[in-house]
Amino acid sequence: MPDQRTLGSTEAVERDVVVVGAGPAGLRAARELVAAGKTVAVLEARDRVGGRTWSRVIDGAFLEIGGQWISPDQTELLGLVEELGLETFQRYREGDSVYIAPDGTRHTYTGATFPAGEQTIAEMERLIGVLDELAADIGAAEPWAHPRARELDTVSFHHWLRQLSDDEAACNNIGIYVAGGMLTKPSHAFSTLQAVLMAASAGSFSNLVDEDFILDRRVVGGMQSVSEAMAEQLGDDVVFLNAPVRTIRWGGPEDTYAEHTPGTGVTVWSDPVTVRAQQVIVAVPPNLYSRISFEPPLPRLQHQMHQHQSLGIVIKVHAVYETPFWREKGLSGTGFGAAELSQEVYDNTNHGDSRGTLVGFVSDEKADEVFKLPAAERKRLILESLSHYLGEEALDPVVYYESDFGSEEWTRGAYAASYDLGGLHRYGADQRNPVGPIFWACSDLAAEGYQHVDGALRQGRLAAREVLGG
């Protein structure tokens, strides 16, 4: 990659548009604007591009620290991958999957349904059917506008499931997919409407619970390479790294957000560079908006809204072995267990790699608990959980690493922001509204592809079109 202006001293530049954040959303917006003939500066706080996608070599092993998977419906991402000349490969899925029942017993199975007992399976299928109907009826674009929006947004997903079913195992298994698998918050902490949005953004709840669909394939060379390729095409006079934005000021003293005077411009201050432009796209997650001083201050509604949005917490566990030993046992590497410390595990072996890699996830309250422990004890417990699925060989990886985006200064959580109870129907309609010359773009605000790279790209493209006037 070319030098992307990692600067050590303050510089002043003029552009048509400034983009805050060099993740997929910000880079896609910049790419669209440059293609339309606009001059752009992208200011990134980190020393790298990619945002919540990040690929690193650790102890000789290539690991996907952040987001990595592509599902078949993510056409925005798939189209860009092809356009950039990148390749994809399918996640390994041959062989039996493993289910750990609430009593700790281990079961192998094939197909999409847990071997959870006839009654529980029937209840899971019924609940999935109800959620599929809601997702189809409410949709991803404007869930807050549905007649049942307030009703579904003021009851937690945990309690709503139990209003529908007294089968605790079925409720817990359904909860894995949204609470631990996507929103990374306890199911009592987000609403049913938020869960329906998650399902609708994937096409249906059935898609969301089908790991072969939602975790279909990966990018050869890592998902971060998508952002790296976009940044390289933009050139070394567009993307500024190590450039955290401190202040956004626009207009003159007579301007208000209600009556913005077009053409008055905006000035964006970062540590190494100051950019004077006409518009700004803020392409970072909502929990980071407060890191920027806005002059004049954002309207009251914005301040309220941002206090009701937060990211969850998850430990993404990477364990690399000399060989993918589970395959020799006829196992796919896929496992689920609602009561397990790692509620999910998958084969995450890299393209063309002879070694085997597993990825597991420790979410929400379970992550809180093990973060209180010394690192060695946390590692022991997590590997013990993986061994429950795949055998004692899982206890001894040659490389072990824990992704923790919650401790990252410029992320502070995973995977994306969601609203607390009642927040989505109350603020959702206003979350993307421009404020003066300020526009917003990130996966956290997406409809289709919500919380995914695909959604980030869609939001970047949409924000660019809004800046361009259409």
Automatic annotation (TrEMBL):
- The organism's superkingdom is given as Bacteria
Gene3D superfamilies assigned: FAD/NAD(P)-binding domain
Identify the stretch annotated as signal peptide in this record: none
Presence of the UniProt keyword Cell membrane in the record:
no
A GO molecular function held by the record: oxidoreductase activity
Q: Which UniProt keywords apply?
A: Oxidoreductase
| Span of domain Amine oxidase | 25-468
Q: Which InterPro entries match?
A: Amino_oxidase (IPR002937), FAD/NAD-bd_sf (IPR036188), Flavin_amine_oxidase (IPR001613), Flavin_MAO (IPR050703)
Q: Can you tell me which residues bind FAD? A: E44, A45, V245
UniProt key word Membrane: no
Q: Which cofactor does it need?
A: FAD
Instruction: Indicate the family of this protein.
Output: Belongs to the flavin monoamine oxidase family.
Name listed for the protein in its UniProt record: FAD-dependent oxidoreductase
Species whose genome carries this gene: Kocuria coralli
Q: What does UniProt list as this organism's lineage?
A: Bacteria, Bacillati, Actinomycetota, Actinomycetes, Micrococcales
